[in-house]
Each structure stands twice: as C-alpha cells, then as structure tokens.
Amino acid sequence: MTFRRFVATLQEVEKASSRLAMVRLLAEAFRELPAEEVPLAVNLLQGRVAPEFEGLEFGVAEKEAAKALALALGRDEGEVVQEVKQKGDIGAVARERLPEQEGGLGLKHVYDELRAIAEDSGPGSQARKRERLARLLKAASPAEGAIILRIVTGRLRLGVGDATVLEALALAFLGDRAKKPLLERAYNLTSDLAHVAWLVMQGEEALRAVRLEVGKPVRMMLAERLPGPEQIMEKLGPHYAEHKYDGERVQVHYDGRRFWVYSRRLENITHQYPDLLQALAEVQSRPFIIEAEAVVTDPLTGEMRPFQNVLNRKVKHLTEELLEKYPIKGFVFEILFEDGEPLIELPYTQRRERLEKWFKPHERLALSVKRYVEDVRQLTEFFDESIEAGCEGLVCKKPDGVYEAGKRGFKWVKYKRGIAGKLSDTLDLVIVGAWLGRGKRAGSYGSLLAATYNPDEDRFETITKIGSGFSDEDLGRVLPQRLGPYRREERHPRVWSLLEPDVWFEPAQVVEVEAQEITLSPNHTCAFGVVKEGRGLALRFPRFVRYRDDKSPEEATSSAEVVEMYKNQWPS
Length: 572
Ligand code: AMP
Prior knowledge:
The chain is α+β, with helices and mostly antiparallel strands. It is about 40% helix and about 20% strand. Strands 12, 13, 14, 15, 16, 17, 18 and 21 form an 8-stranded mixed sheet that branches. Strands 3, 4, 5, 6, 7 and 8 form a 6-stranded mixed sheet that branches. Strands 1-11-10-2-9 form a 5-stranded mixed sheet, covered by helices on one side. The structure holds adenosine monophosphate.
C-alpha cells in the first residue's frame, strides 16, 4: 500500500464521529493491505515500530525533528526550530512548508526507515537519525510529512485504543466484530498487537493456539473491590486470602539465560531490579514466569517500607549506593509458567501448590503469606494481622479461579483500609495556617493548615492541608475576610506543627471537612506517637464542607476521637 493511502485513512479516523466508524475505516484499510504490511500498519497506528514492551524508542526530540525538516526544506535550522516552537505543532509546520508532490512512498519503506531511525544508537546516531529523517521528508507530501513527524516525536495520538484495533482486525479478517474476544485472548497473552494481526490473518485456529511466551509480557490480572468482609465472604465463599504487599508489581520472565522484568503497565523495567534478579539467579536455573510485589525493606531491620520508597530506585543509573539504601525483597504470589509448561489455566489452588514447590528460600525472596478463611471472623482476623505486619490489607483469591490475563474480575478481590471509599464521619477542624495561592489563586490562599484539638495538652495538632472544596467566592473574598483578623507573623503557642506555612492564624475558625481515609504521617502532629512511634495521623483526600461558626476551637474534633476513627475504619 502506498503511504499516501495509509495517511488518508488516518486522517479519516481522526475525523470519525464514533468508535464504530473508526473500526470500519481501519478494517477497510487492513483488508486492502498486503498481508505482510498489516502488522507494520498496526504498529504505525500506535505511533510505534515495535510493541511497547520492547522499549524501542525513536530518540528524536522535537528540536531534532525540526532540524531534519529544515534539512529537507533546505532552510535555516534556527528559523525552522523557531517556527515549530511558535506553532507548537511540528506536524502543522510540515503541512504548510513541504511542497505538494506526487509522493511515491510505500508504507513498508516508511516503516523500515522509521525502524532504522529507532534502532540507530551510539556515537553519531543523532546526526544519522536526522539525515535519514530528512531524506524521508524530502520524498513526502505535506500530509505524509506531518504524520511521519508526529510519529517520530511521539505525538501521533490518534485516539485509537487497543480494543478498537482488535475489533477492526476481527471485522477485517474474521468478518465479524463480535469475534474480538478471540483476538483479545491472544493479545492478553502476548501484549503484542502486531503479532495478533499476523495470527488473525491465518485464521481462528492460529489465534486459539496462542500460548504465553517467555520474554513477552502477559497482561496482568487485576483485583476487584467489594465494600467489606461480609460481601467478600458472600462472593467467594471459603477461600485463600493473601497479604497485600505495598510495593511495585513485577512480572519476571526467565528463559534459562536471560531475565526480563515487566511493570504493571508492561514496560520493560529489567534494569531497575538487578538485586532481585541476582537473588532469583542464585536459587533458580529453569525457565519460569512469576509475579511478585517488589517491596523496599529497611537495610538494618529488614522491615517493609511504604511504596514511595520504590520510587527512589526509579532513576536512569541505579548506583550501588541506592541499591544499598533501598534494598528490595520480592514477595512472590504467582507462577504463570514453569519449565515449558504454561500454568495460567490451572485453578488457583494448583498454581499455588506449584508455586510453593518451585519456591526456594533466599533472604531477598519470600512467598506471599496466605491463609484459608472460612468465615467473616477469620477473614477480619487475618486482615488485622496483615495490617500489623505492615501490609495494605489482603487479596482474597477464589480457589478455583484461573489466571485471567488482562482482566479485572472477582476471582481476586482486594480488601483494604477505607474500603468504602470514604470516612463515614466528617471532622470539625481549626484553621491554624495557610500557604499563599499561585496562578488562579494568586492574592488568596492556596491551601489551609487544619488542626484537631488535644484537651489534655490544651493544644492544636495539625492533621491536614485542605485545598479543595472551596468556591471561587470563598477563595477570593470570604476566606481572607474571615481569617485576616487572626493572622500572625509567628506560630500561635497553642499550635503544634512540624510544617511551616506562609502565614499563621490564631486558632479561631472552625470548618467541617470530609475525607477518604485517615493515615499515619510523619508530617502531622495529631495524636503524634499514639498509634505509632514517630507518626501522627493525617487525612487522605480532604475536602472543605462548610464553616462551623457555631463551634469554638475547643469544640473541634479531638485528637483522641481521630484515633478512634482511625481504628474504626478497619473492620473489626
Ligand atoms: P490495587 O493496586 O489496589 O488494584 O491492588 C492489586 C495489586 O495488589 C496487585 O496489582 C499487586 O500489585 C498487589 N498485590 C500485593 N500483594 C498481592 C498478592 N498477594 N496477590 C496479588 N496481588 C498483590
């Protein structure tokens, strides 16, 4: 197919008024394509030359692309770079500036050139990429050039989702959109749309025969939520519950020589876990695919640290120092493939048995803690234990549940704190400080510092910053008017705060606040050290509800009441 015809399809897809119209346009184009070009077109549609998990990026910044355009046009680099900057859209500049011509570009040629650009790396690659791109642009019509530039700079964004492509492939090659589930299954197992395109052209049998492959990420199974333990017992019956660890979910593949680690979004994150892979390599020698939660532990005590710690390892060059400061422990909870045999269609109990046999102890590895629970009491007991152990709660697993790749269903149900999504009670809090607003909120307050009252110490202890729930009127006029008279340069002596707001207030104004959850926090002083040493309590997702002028500051919610609320948000 000519690239021109492909580009015309993309333009129509962009204008399409419904998803169904998109599906039809794409299916028509797929049918017109020679078979070997269908997978290429599927990749290009997504602005790529390989599936995302391969991590093959173009490595062409907008400025570089603008320089290539200048080269193709024979114009001054600086001028074109400036023009692109002003327009903010490199595609639009290409459309305006490239000369109209009967471009003879073939889709395969464009794909091959783009792939070569992506694969080029190392010294001098920047210049080579630029020259190759310029040659391509020189042969392109304005519309073609615009699409090429949008692809290499990562700005294609047609709004065509995976599901739409699968549906179009089903319509094009199986004659029926409703056959999409067959394709979906193949996609969930391989995460590779172009591969699915290649299979669907060979017929339904080829799709049915797809198996997972070591090295290709399996789209992850996800957990549903239910309001509470009663509903979970009702839905699952007696089942296995596992501790829910709060780290990063990783899918680790090993083919006997090489490791791959994939994130929940199926990005290749192998380089982020050398220590985890080292541990696995020490105890395993046969191919496998497993899933684990990678949790940062305290280097001294071995205790689990909260999820945020994992983010400290997300740097380009992971140094020895970072590996020592943020050591990882992998809590393994799934095995999807072992030594040549895919296991995902086995029920949970059998997979877990295989996992337990497969597992070999190592200080950096553990099996997820599990327990068979038969009623609400056992479930909530195990839940409390999981929280005590530093976990987020439980993942409850249906004994006969297969591993449903790419699906969120009731075969796994998560059981977390604040499961109902909101605290049942609101809190009455005292405003003790504020940060000045920026942007739309300039001249007013951006957020307020709010506190509970501790009658034993006769002091106000901070619990949250509030920034949402206020109307424009509140922000522009009401709040400054109400709080202005209480403004002070220094912290009020009855206020205990670890945070340093821009302005302080005498504790006077009480406001009602709703929130989703109460959490432990090192930054707030409410009931500091009561639940846990070195931690106070804080609100998650707080929202202003109304002013409570009927309440004096001493009548605000007390810190002790918040401790009770904190405890009660966990089912007992
Ligand atoms: P959520 O992210 O809240 O939807 O909860 C599901 C996530 O919990 C999974 O994607 C895993 O990353 C994580 N998780 C932690 N422990 C387990 C476990 N034992 N089994 C399954 N998932 C777990």
